[in-house]
Amino acid sequence: MLFLNALLIPEEILNFSDVVHVWYFLKTFTVDSWRQTGELPLWNPLIFSGVPFAANPQSTLFYPPFWIFFSIPVHFSITLLFVLHFVFAGLGMYVFARLRRLSFLPSLFAALVFVLNWKVVAHIFAGHLTQTAAWSYFPWLMASIDYFAQKRSVKSMIGVTLCYTLLFLAGHMQLFYYQFLVASAYLLTLAATTYRDKWFGISVRYALCGVFIAVCTAVSLFPVVELTQYFHRSGGTAYSFASSFSLPLKALAGFILPYLQGIPEPGSNLKNQFFWESAVYCGILPIFLSMIGYRSASRVHSLFFGSLFFFSLLFALGANGPLFKPLYYILPGISYFRVPARMFLYGCFSVSILSAFALQTLMDDYKDIRLKPLLRICGILFALMVLAHEYLYYFHSNRELTGSGRTLFYLFCGGLVLLGRYKAWLKNKYLFALIVIFISITDLFTMEYPLITTKPLDNLFPANHIYGGVTNDPTLFRIFDTTGVFPQYMSAQYNVQQIGGDEPVMLGSYLNYIHRAYRMPSDDTKAEHSLFTIPNLNKNIDWNRINLLNVKYLYSFNKIDQPNLIEEGTTAINSFSDESSDDLFSSFSAYMISNMVKIYLYRNARALPRSFVLPITDQSMTPDDTLYSFMYNNFVGLEPAQILDYTSNDISFKVTTDTPCYLFSSEIYYPGWKVFVDAAEADMIVFDGVFRGVKLAEGTHSVEFRFEPASYIIGRRVTAAGVVLLVLSVLVCFSPLEYTKEKFFLFFFR
């Protein structure tokens, strides 16, 4: 129901920021490249002047559900994938609850709270597709850990392996890391308590699962591991960066007031201020029920899920709490990620299962003695909120309690139904459970349904003359966009390459080069500094370095006084509709937009060709010295190379020279790129630490740069072997005769 409108309008795209700016871009590029060449793109030339693609976890090239992009239009595939993972997550939570011996209605309650809590749906609203996919595996992973600890069989090992494999391939490394920590802690808890005499066998088999997971994910794992050596976050990031987007202390009031930061508006990052990172609301009734949820759980599970809630909350506080900083220095891997607030997703999981335990308890025993203090807490909170609401609204005109009216309403309804159960007014346990579910889901659903909106695909590509010169230019070039007027999803649509981009994976060597081109000091090159936001292009720009990047067009908010730049056109910001401008300028604050009137398009008259010949005038000079010599002599005598073919994984040139020379290409170097001269592999030269090149003798030569990373080739073979072994194991260990209709019905519905 949450995605009903989106499913009924397949010609429109979800109005989520990251859907438009990230996923439409990534998948349009993937599909177009595959259709052009018949092979998967391992390299993406559209952003950062070229960046590894298969090594980028978010490319999700090897995640099976994402293969629907090759048969269904990209924009509607995104909608379907959100829906499928949303349903898959709910089903997984239901299965996990059933394994914890909860009956049908409490299990259904756990599933609904898990998928509809404000934290999860807020991330869906933000368009976080890989995060949604990774999160959907968590209840299945916990269920497989439960089964594994109990059985320790090959069948149980297959379940753990399959969950971890798909979780890794889903592409969100931060959630994979978090879920590995939580699931391993859960297994350790079970091994140390319930299965104390089996701990050694559990440990050995879990380690074997780890080996099998590495084999099955090798096609993605090996390139990712290779990238970590060249990634700009290699070795970790500074504490200030890793703790960015910590959960603010005032956000804790969001347990009761979900609209504390205001009511979200679909499609807008600027006005919503990344509220999904500070969202914690799980519904009024689930929060209160979780306080007595340990009653029907075993001692081990009540202790674990209660501890998980408080751990995830303290971790999510990041720099605002006491836990994150010591973990940053002690626990390997924490420093590679930012946004510690995402850890509270597992707090929401704890609330979901603990509240389901409580519902089961109250269904079985309406005279539970722990219900009385809970009713008192509800009553006191209700009274305090009424007083605060009246005081702030009527005496101070304060809007800090936005949406408090709905909180009061659901708090009153929840307290009333709990009181009815305690007083034996609701003796029918099924009616009681249905009312609890109805109140909780109405509470959550009415908040979230308005967020799931769509918009026409054509709105992504506003008609404006500021694009014409760029999109109609048939030559090979890059653009330097300092405004955000040419977002990367338009780059995928029109095959326009940029020197900037919006993507957390970038090469450290390229980031250093950009900083030198901007003449911008950077104390922490591992942090994500913008690659296109420049306050004033008249100052501090090394135009020779920009020219080496084959930059032909520039977009700027300010008029640039440079002899090499020719003004091609201007447009007013208000010429864009409010909706499209929010998409186009999402990288900028509302203040910047409101104080900038025009966008200028410039053509760079001194743009260097994509590849050119550098004659070797002095054999004692290094390739870099030869390049610098030509650079600071305005490239006198430079001859362009003829481009024969240009695809994501393969670039071919024809070069004719009368003297020994270097062929310089402004393509970015990365391990795996090979160069072939006249079909024979030659030694690659790396110019200025970032560009590709090769030394040539006099004559006419064909030169081909081909991307064949050994990490991908070896990983593909290892994964193929692992998948074959996994399929054979499934065929041997799982018999459909085991699963009768009666067993299926009893498990899911009794």
From TrEMBL:
Keywords of the record:
Membrane, Transmembrane, Transmembrane helix
So which domain of life are we looking at? Answer: Bacteria
Q: Kindly list the residue ranges recorded as spanning the membrane.
A: 66-96, 108-126, 132-149, 161-180, 200-225, 237-261, 273-291, 303-323, 343-362, 374-395, 407-424, 431-452, 718-737
Q: What is this protein called?
A: YfhO family protein
